[in-house]
From TrEMBL:
Source lineage: Bacteria, Bacillati, Actinomycetota, Actinomycetes, Kitasatosporales
Names of the cofactor(s): Mg(2+)
EC main group: hydrolase
InterPro entries xref list: HAD-like_sf (IPR036412), HAD_sf (IPR023214), OTSB-like (IPR044651), Trehalose_PPase (IPR003337)
Function in brief: Removes the phosphate from trehalose 6-phosphate to produce free trehalose.
rRNA-binding among keywords: no
Keywords: Hydrolase, Magnesium, Metal-binding
Protein name: Trehalose 6-phosphate phosphatase
Pathway recorded for this protein: Glycan biosynthesis; trehalose biosynthesis
Catalytic reactions of this protein: alpha,alpha-trehalose 6-phosphate + H2O = alpha,alpha-trehalose + phosphate
Entry similarity comment: Belongs to the trehalose phosphatase family.
Amino acid sequence: MAAVPTPRTAAGRKGLDAIMGEPRRAVLAFDFDGTLAPIVPDPDDARAHPGAVPALSRLAPRLCAVAVVTGRPAEDAVRYAGLAGAVGLEHLTVLGAYGAERWDAATGSVTAAPPPPGVAAVRAELPGLLEDSGAPPGTRIEDKGRAVAVHTRRTDDPAAALTLLSGPLHALAERHGLLVEPGRMVLELRAPGADKGAALEAYVREVGGGAVLYGGDDLGDLAAFAAVEKLRGEGVPGLLVCSGGGETGESVPEIADRADLVVDGPSGVVRLLESLAGSLGDGADGPDTP
Ligand SMILES: O=P(O)(O)OC[C@H]1O[C@H](O[C@H]2O[C@H](CO)[C@@H](O)[C@H](O)[C@H]2O)[C@H](O)[C@@H](O)[C@@H]1O
């Protein structure tokens, strides 16, 4: 059994000690794309790493709660990760669309905030705007229902395409009361009022978590990192995990620099989960059994 890696910060070591010491008080939450799922060229092709759900299934019965916190629509994350009906994950929650949507395994249903105004207008104007802006071949629109994203990963120069489109997309978002959420080779136009930090903080409080681990890879996860830091300030130990590099070789420095522990992409996240599951034990003879 692989040893659980040691966080590089004192706060992270305290967070990990709290999780290992009292797992039934611990909340583990993870981003989806780039963290539980490898980054792939087409967003529709994203799937959880084959080891991710089995590892979460082993861990979850030992914990207070497990959640996925994602910019994806909640239903997409459930489908792409294969979460519905997963053994051991009967109480898992997916906080989707940056917290505007929620899926609970216990009910199998989604609750969602009202659809944001402005998205329909952006959806209608976007193809013309991309053409007028000289968007290169390979630029892709992802319709997320309550948001619209523009991906450049499949263009010849994804970073240059993002730079080219950034100004026009910001102007379009502003005209319709939306914000631009930047990510890995993507700019998403979505409604303000939700973020992963508020979603995670509310969830930890709701389930009465006494320690928290959050794993993420992208700028949208910074708000969740800030929520863990806020909870730490209130005496709830926390561990911040960056899913870095990995299969794409990409790392988001803002996340890597702020994390207590950097692992090697979704494969590294799975190895971390497996080491935690191995250390906590799978059965009634585990370390936290009275
Ligand atoms: O919050 P997340 O679960 O990490 O979702 C963030 C965005 O992820 C997706 O885009 C990213 O993954 C794609 C598939 O691997 C990749 O092609 C793209 O370059 C990445 O930016 C998703 O398409 C977005 O809608 C999510 O908001």
